[in-house]
Structures are given as structure tokens and as C-alpha cells.
Task: inverse folding
């Protein structure tokens, strides 16, 4: 029996620099499993175009600084319009080290990861595939360094309160789930977590799924932010 070929991952490029978009398109379209289907020069154009193309884009590469509407605001608009029947495309924020506060805000708004604009092409391609699978982009070495730098800009934690939903959710985690979340926050992959805890990778995936469900997190990145905000993990640990 002939297998039906898997359709390519549909990618949207949002950047105010046309040459940047052209370079990204050339790299992405060179891959048989990826395809650029939409481009926009600012956040407002992106929101309008992606709203019209609901369900037709899988992953968005979103620059942070753009005229008219920045990537942060655009990401919030896109994720706010999602539903269980029509999920929003997954967003990868493109950034540089001096824009950490924007990256954190974008992740809180619903981005599934972040990538340095000068990352090697193969890292960008891997990030698109990773995010499309439902994971978050926090594992590659450059984003691990960015994550370590990012957490230093988190605001001082407010005094805990039993009504704080994030703290209450973390309190519901089992001891093993807390261990897994701490390792996730340190940028460890499922394979590495399994090696650290001497369990199968499939078991780690099960724990990760339960952690995301209990925290109400969209993906690993949001779960990691919650871990730092609730001080389950502290910068530099």
C-alpha cells in the first residue's frame, strides 16, 4: 500500500526587512517538509493576513521590533483568537540578546519559543520542526544561554498567596513532576531528563504532559516561565 505523503509544515514570515524574509524563505523552501505560505512586513499585516488564513499556517517566525505593530502585540492578538477547534499557529519569536524583556513578554503572550536572528540556518529549521511537533524551543545551546540570561530580567516575585493560580498549580505537582519541571527549566531535553532520572523517555513525556495539564501551560516554555515566576527554580541555580 502506498503511503500518503505528509504535507509540508506551512510557515509564515513576519519581518519588516524584505531581505531578511527573502533569506529565510530561501532556506525554508529548500526543505521538502517545509513551505513558506505567507509573508508580512509588520505585526498589523500579520494579524490581518493570518486571521484571513485561519487554519492555513502552522508556524510563524515573528520579529519583535517592527513598525505599526510589534511582534509582541501581534503574538498576543494571534493567541487570543485561538480556540479548541481552531488553534492559533505556533509562534517563534526572533530576537537578539539585548531584547530579553520583549522575549519574556512574547512568551507570556503565547509564543512557543525564541530564536536568535543570527542563529545558523539548520538551527532555525530544527526550531520550526520542533515547535510544529508541539515542543518548545528551549533546548539548543544558544537558546539555553538565552534562557539563562532571560530569567535575570524576571520581576521580583510577589508574596505568595493560596489564591495565586500558578502557585496552587505547582503545589499540585508530584515530587517526580517537580523534578522533571526543574530539569525542563534548566533546558534539558526529554532524553537528557530520562538519563538524569534513570527512566525511559516515554515516561518523561508522560510526566511532561501531566505537568503542562496541571499548570494550564501551552507548552514547555510557558511551563518554564511559571517555574521561575513561582521560584521553584531561581536564576543561577
Result:
Amino acid at each position: 500500500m502506498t503511503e500518503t505523503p505528509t504535507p509540508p509544515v506551512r510557515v509564515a514570515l513576519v519581518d519588516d526587512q524584505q531581505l531578511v524574509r527573502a533569506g529565510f524563505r530561501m532556506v525554508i523552501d529548500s526543505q521538502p517538509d517545509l513551505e513558506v505560505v505567507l509573508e508580512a512586513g509588520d505585526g498589523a499585516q500579520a494579524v490581518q493576513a493570518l486571521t484571513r488564513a485561519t487554519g492555513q499556517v502552522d508556524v510563524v517566525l515573528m520579529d519583535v521590533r517592527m513598525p505599526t505593530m510589534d511582534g509582541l502585540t501581534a503574538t498576543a492578538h494571534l493567541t487570543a483568537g485561538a480556540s479548541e477547534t481552531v488553534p492559533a499557529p505556533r509562534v517563534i519569536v526572533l530576537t537578539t540578546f539585548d531584547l530579553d524583556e520583549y522575549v519574556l513578554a512574547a512568551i507570556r503572550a503565547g509564543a512557543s519559543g525564541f530564536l536568535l536572528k543570527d542563529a545558523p540556518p539548520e538551527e532555525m529549521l530544527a526550531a520550526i520542526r520542533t515547535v510544529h511537533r508541539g515542543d518548545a524551543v528551549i533546548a539548543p545551546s544558544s537558546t539555553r544561554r538565552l534562557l539563562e540570561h532571560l530569567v535575570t530580567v524576571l520581576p521580583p516575585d510577589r508574596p505568595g498567596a493560596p489564591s495565586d493560580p500558578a502557585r496552587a498549580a505547582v503545589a499540585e505537582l508530584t515530587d517526580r513532576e517537580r523534578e522533571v519541571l526543574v530539569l525542563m527549566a534548566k533546558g534539558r531535553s526529554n532524553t537528557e531528563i530520562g538519563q538524569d532520572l534513570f527512566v525511559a523517555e516515554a515516561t518523561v513525556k508522560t510526566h511532561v504532559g501531566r505537568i503542562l495539564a496541571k499548570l494550564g501551560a501551552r507548552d514547555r516554555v510557558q511551563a518554564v516561565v511559571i517555574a521561575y515566576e513561582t521560584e521553584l527554580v531561581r536564576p543561577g541555580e
